[in-house]
Amino acid sequence: MVQFEENKKWNVEGKYAVITGATSGIGLAAAQELARRGADLGIVARNRSKASEAVSLINAASGGRVKVDVFIADMSSQSSIRQAAAEILASCPKVDILINNAGAMFVSRKLTVDGVEMTWAVNHLAPFLLTNLLLDRLKESEHARVITTASHGHKMAKKGVRFDDLSAERLYSFPLNVMGGANYRYGETKLANIMFTAELAKRLEGTRVRAYSYDPGLVSTNFNQDNGRLARMTMAVMKKFSRTPDKGAETMVWLADSDEVGDQNGLYYAEKQIKTPSAQARDASAAKRLWEVSEDQVRQTI
């Protein structure tokens, strides 16, 4: 169970939190802990069967004392995200916390139904679009938070976001090694998560919404299991050095539940502390450009 200090001015009890990627791994661990602490939840899941299993686990964690809603969405599809957002807005009179946690990595280049490279679509454009679609509802809360799961892996993107290759056509053909292009692309999307958070915070100035990104650390989950034998072998080795999902979820839960971060905005965290991300992540002009490019890619402005 995630450890946390008691007697806070702000906590999640009675708050409504929407969380993506909550059917397994750190998302499920966080959802269970938030439910234990009294938060009502809206979990966004791709698979209804897995969502039902997650709801059972979340209800068991809370003793059935909180509400758990399910919204089905394919996070690689913009129309599916829009449909889920419309359902959330129709059924949830308030959203206090949005946790953008769903993520993926693909060894080979794939395109979504929208013609966008898959890793970029799921890891960056999905949280960008969902946040924008729910932002007005978040602003209606007395205090609201947007939390996005980034990664220490953002430092792999040493050249920053490749604005001249957003579709990753050259990246995946670059002969580094079997995982080279995929690793850089994944790092690039995690870099985008941090830049998105920083730019979102600027655009939220004067509102009661705060934005945070964080690194959960190397966590033992089912991540990267659908990318072939080599990827599975790599993850099997990494698991020996990985933390549990509960441990990986601690900073996510802390950012949702802590009164301590209420006046902070746009920052990056790890181990429940503010951390300094890479120089590329701190490039304000690149973050602004990323926002504008992302608006074009999802055809959504605020």
TrEMBL record:
Superkingdom of origin: Bacteria
Gene Ontology molecular function terms on file: oxidoreductase activity
Membrane-spanning ranges: none
Protein name per UniProt: SDR family NAD(P)-dependent oxidoreductase
This protein's UniProt keywords: Oxidoreductase
Pfam families documented for this protein: adh_short
InterPro entries: NAD(P)-bd_dom_sf, SDR_fam
